[in-house]
Known about the structure:
With 706 residues, this protein is an alpha+beta fold. Helices cover 30% and strands 14% of the residues. Helix 2 (64-80) packs across helix 17 (556-566) and helix 16 runs antiparallel to helix 19 (619-635).
Amino acid sequence: MNLNKKSLLAVCGAxxxxxxxxxxxxxxxxDLLKDSDDAGVYKDALGEFEKLLNEAEDxxxxxxxxxxxxxxxxEAALLxxxxxxxxxxxxxxxxxxxxxxxxxxxxxxxxxxxKLRNLVVTAGDNKDSLINKEHRAELMAQWQKxxxxxxxxxxxxxxxxxxGKGYTISKKHQTSWSTAPETLDILNTSAQADTETxxxxxxxxxxxxxxxxxxxxxxEDWTISDDGKTYTFSVPANNPWVDxxxxxxxxxxxVTAEDYVTGFQHMLDAKAGLxxxxxxxxxxxxxxxxxxxxxxxxxxxxxxxxxxxxxEQPEGxxxxxxxxxxxxxxxxxxxxxxxxxxxxxxFAEKKAKEDYTYGKVNKPExxxxxxxxxxxTHTASGTAGDIVLKKNSHFFKASETTLDEVKWVYDAxxxxxxxxxxxxxGNYSGIGLTGANLQKAKDxxxxxxxxxxxxTESTTFFGGVNLHRxxxxxxxxxxxxxxxxxxxxxxxxxxxxxxxxxxxxHSFDKATYNAVSVGExxxxxxxxxxxxxxxxxxxxxxxxxxxxxxxxxxxxxxxVQYYLEQLGTKVEVADGKDGWYKPEEAKKYLEKxxxxxxxxxxxxxxxxxxxxxxxxxxxxxxxxxxxxxxKFNEVxxxxxxxxxxxxxxxxxxxYKVGYRAANGAALGADLFYGxxxxxxxxxxxxxLDTFKPNxxxxxxxxxxxx
Length: 706
């Protein structure tokens, strides 16, 4: 879901050396860490986390509640390591909108909450068409009753309510993109920038509804074998493949079980950052990815028109995995007509050839569609272009689709006036009110009647401490480090010290950092202090581990809190607090780090600097970077360490060294806080597995590894 793998971008300097703008390209005098050292760095920083996570995921741990407790213990070790700093979650900011609440799927995991087919949007080109906060509150109350089993809350009932209040309902929804999509192949990407739009043009085997219930999309509910290892899913009936004009392509027929099998194999073959989510879960996948067996040995098959999935071991939450788009179908004949081939080696050889055109970005004709929408226009690239989806009238649930068109236009927040005016004028269905836009809403009398605080979500954003920096600049003069070779060499040794990292995480004043964006009065609303959403799961019964009993209904976060305290890290992990900011503790950790480094023969560099890249054309990003720098430098004003800001002048360069970095080696900062992760299924491992070693964990690149 980041969500957020692997052609190395061009950097200045060879793989085993660095080139810095301040040292005229002189080769370092010491050997820097090489790629082969990633495993050693990981073991030193996260070895305990890995051990505890493996214990939690041991197949012998068959009790779900015990598994949760063990995972909480592992998460405590991850947080205590100081390699990552949870910052915020999505939501918790002021917003104005024409979008009715909870008319899309309600879920903590998967992609369904990005599917817009049931979205209810009011129409208008002025502030009066924005939904009043009182009306939104009434709709939220109706939704909560439906969640409690009291009445209904559907697109039709919401539309009726809004029309009764004098609103007109729109058939169009327009929003923005800031990171350009790179493919139309939803199975060959793991970036939110791609899947956010593409999840609307495919249909999976299950889906969440708007009150949080998981349903099969086919005509029958799924079945589970007596041993809990085999799941059988029916396929949506009479759902044809359509082209980029919304026309049925009769030669490809309706979506079949075989199409889901083809899609699953293509996803594994592509190795684009999705495959690890099912490695060790679905039978045979691990061996297939190692090319030890053929796909016929993988437990994902079409049998009598149904999809049959065999697991390595029982997994009660398995159906929630299928709400992620990595289980999307692909029509084999069409795939092959665009040069596609199946098989890991065959695809690896084919994908770079000119005759392989399947799912090419900005070429909607290179894909087929089977969801509520199809891709009509796709010109998004760099910092311009549009993405337009139109209603698929042949979709098997087309009668439920409320919109005729969804459009994304480029907007990275570089012109807040334009963003604000585009919303008021009806070009955007809604926007978050941050920075200057928040003040504009107040000045124009919109805030009091229209602004509301958005719900917080399960996505967690965090800062990653680069343990193995290898990129110090992009080609040309873009995003250039200010460090000398000596400073870079010193920091590469110093950052491996755990107490130094803990000094960094305890000095982060997240509330001030957040306030410059969302406002002083709600600066704590979206703060998050752990990786997993604290109430993501809770215990269904009492569990005793390590001599401690955790009672039934205990939130996962409370267990993490307990284990952090056992490690001597006394923080508050609950949402809505600046639970890690402890300036005096930070200073103590720094002094311990200096002592330990001195004993190891590493002399402290009085010019020690943590480089943070920011996007100078984005007002909010710039303001947050400066707030982080100011507060950090205040904490350590007498301590010979500071934050240095490195300017990126374009969003493309900013994303290259961070969110879009091809791998850990391409991460171009000492600290990058622009990445996040949203859960793909309903188990804490969906977060924690992203920090597994050896390239198996998706988020290790944010700490400079793999």
